[in-house]
Amino acid sequence: MKKLLLTIWLLLLLFAVGTLFWYNEWVYHLPTPVPENYKPVSQGKLIKLNDSLESDHSKPLFLHFFNPDCPCSRFNITNFKSLVRRYGNRVKFVIVVMNHDFYSASQIRDKFDLDLPVLFDASLAASCGVYSTPQAVLLDQDHKLYYRGNYNSSRYCTDEKTSYAKIALEGLLHNHEKILFNQLALRAYGCRLPKCTN
Q1: Is the pLDDT of residue 95 over 80?
Q2: Burial status of residue 160 (CB atoms within 10 A of its CB: 0-12, 13-18, 19 or more)
Q3: How far apart are CA 23 and CA 5, in angstroms?
Q4: pTM assigned to the model
Q5: Which CATH number is 51-192's, of 3.60.21.10, 3.40.190.10, 3.30.70.1340, 3.40.30.10?
């Protein structure tokens, strides 16, 4: 009788863990609600940057919109670091932290082992049309918007076919004027700004 009860208890526990995992996957695949005051930013638009970024036109600029409290941002960090390793000599990468209430630039760099500039400039999100994290924004050397969207359709960024940020980087670096991305790339998924509420 004890073995039967133990087996039933373990099966219930396994079912509960599976249900929780499935629920989190389902929630992740729901798009982030578009804010009422959202103004879309079209591809090719010149993006106004702060003084520290505006003067540098030597390389394309990759803005990583990031919230350390957002589970989606944390799932994405390994993929982001792989992009930095692969393209960091040809593209300038900058982390834009969207929840700066409890973090400093050095804490972000230390916690996630990233030796990159860290900005706390929420106005960049509106300028680039970003309303969730994580989001990738790629600007060409003239600071015109080349790509704003998701890193991947997979929560863990493991699907190479939908590695949208990487596809955008390759397209820009190989002078493809415009790549057409599907809605999975362009519709925001993740945590709403400014706080992690999804």
Answers
A1: yes
A2: exposed
A3: 27
A4: 0.83
A5: 3.40.30.10
